[in-house]
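FAQ: What does a multi-protein file look like?

Like this. Sequence, then tokens, then the next protein.
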Amino acid sequence: MSRPHEPEIAAIRDSLAAFGDPWQVGETRLSRLPERLRRVRLGVPAPEQTDIDARAGQAERMAAEALEAVGQQVVAATAPASTLPKSFDLREVSGRDFVTSVKDQGSCGSSVSFGTLAALETTAAYTRGAPGLNLDLSEAHLFHSHARARGYTSDSGSWPDDLFDDAATKGVTFEDYFPYQDNGSGAANPDWPNRLAKAAGVTDLTGNPAAIKQHIFGYGAVATCFVVYADFFHYRGGVYKHTTDRLAGGHCAALIGWDDDSQCWIAKNSWGTTWGEDGFFRIAYGECFIEDYPSPRPTVFGCTAVHLRAWLPAQRALRLFATANDANGWAYLENLGWTHLAGGPHSTTNKLAMLTHARASGHPVTPFINGNELSTVQVAD
């Protein structure tokens, strides 16, 4: 007995052959769903045909600009080199992985919250040089609380400019304070203002592939919107290029790198780890309007820093530094990197004494971070 999607897959295979088979097609957990339920797992308002028509020729221009960016001088001090390389992947930066785990948005049009927080989580770790930070922020808080307050629903989807604004002005709590349920149930812990992350330096990168690369290389992942065609649900791996003009809607993902040899972006999706390349995908430069979604709104965003206000898990204090009279103290924490000690000389001296004792005795410390500073520290048992 043939499977219901075999004719669809066969048609995609025939089309891919004409392109040299750039990606692998097959049945996936998304493609097994009826078309209506596939669309539910998107989350960006579908583009208007007039906006699509207005971007005729954009794909070639975006691809050319992406390739021309190699060798550009890099401005960000946090970047690992002074010029843009031909390829880069935040999962492999000198042996360190700054990308948090792939999640699953389920049957909810909440992809913008997942793309936005994937960018924040990665930026928080990357700008601190701390891959062990491993933030897990609450998509439920950003979508079911903040986005809902703006009138967004699972059916309507949302836009990244609004959600980045909420992440910057209101902040987003951690997953354990508002666990994600795709049906929108649950509520934030009332103490969430004391356990949150806030985006800083929110930057609009729409329509500028070189700026997107600069941002990824200097600060971390970027959230972007793109058009989803019907064949995308069947993606199993490779460099995606659409083979059909049958539009499914709009979606949001996080760009985490690029590869000029393959002429593609590397992206983190929110459809679980069994879809695509373990939950990630590669997509050709200029494809699906991924650098400039067909909308009057800006649709590609990143941030240059993430400020935390939260107790973090116990970890070792690896190094300490202070200027004369302890007026300027710093601690290098195992999963947080170099962190300034808050307070005046007396407070700094006390924290340094506690951290020195913890190091000498082999005890981890539990830090409370406020902004970018170590506000309070406790020696863990």
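And here is the next protein:
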Amino acid sequence: MPPTAYLAPPRPISLHAILDASTSKSATPSLDLQWEPFQKHVEAFLNAIDAYTLAAKTEIAARATDHVAAVRDLRAETEEMERRIQHEREREGDMLATLESERHTLADLTSSLSHLQSNLAKTKEQSSALESELQTLRKEVKTERTEKERQGKVLDEMKGRDGWELKELEETMGWKVEGIKEDVLLMRFTLIDPSDPAREFCVLVDVSKHEYSAPNCDPPLPTLPELVRQLNSDRDLFAFIKRVRKAFRALIPNPPNPSTKFDDLSGPGLGLRTPALGSRTLSASTPRPAAVTDGSAMEGLTLGR
């Protein structure tokens, strides 16, 4: 409210008129100062001052509260910033330590790389030398393989020829041996029975132990235990074969006359067949007996060319 609002509107005042009026009414002059309007104006002014003061205090209190909050927030932000700065300083220290460690590692790796490059150069030189040696060895292996293949072909030819000759020899001698299992031999005798030359007489010989045994025999031989005992005594397997053949011959009823063609053999089964053995022939180093009844002619057989 402007100051002029508290004043009464101006009016003309005449001091002479006031004195005349006072003289006519009483002996004491009086002046009307209009106190009541002035008092109202003063009270209104004081009320305005009080309201302004109260509003100012309220505003100051609000601003103080805001200032305290702002200071508190600023202090918190400052503390947070200082914490972050400290954290970043610690990270900086760690990064510097890591950088220093990486520098040492780089130096070590550089040294290792130089060493490896040197080793690589040496390895390349050795590889070149080994490659040259490998080429030489390959040539030698190729030559050796060619020679082995040639020898293999020769051996295959010899094997085929020997197999055929062995088959002819087995058929001629009337005797064949087979491996049934480890250290067990099956001996087959033929050309024993004149009425059936293909008939087989078999004996199974077990040589897996020091004492030989004959677990099976077809047809059975009554003298087989004695023959096995004699074999274990003299350890002569060839003589055992001849004795077994002689024992099988003894089983034939009405044995043929020694002068018959079947008995006029130079060995077990020899004489029934005369195979062509090519460059190899069977010969006897002793005179041939008139008849073979004990297989003794097998002792005189030799394989010659």
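Q: Is there any per-entry metadata?
A: Some entries carry free-text notes. For the entry above: The beta strands are 175-181, 184-189, 201-206, 213-218, 281-284, 301-304.
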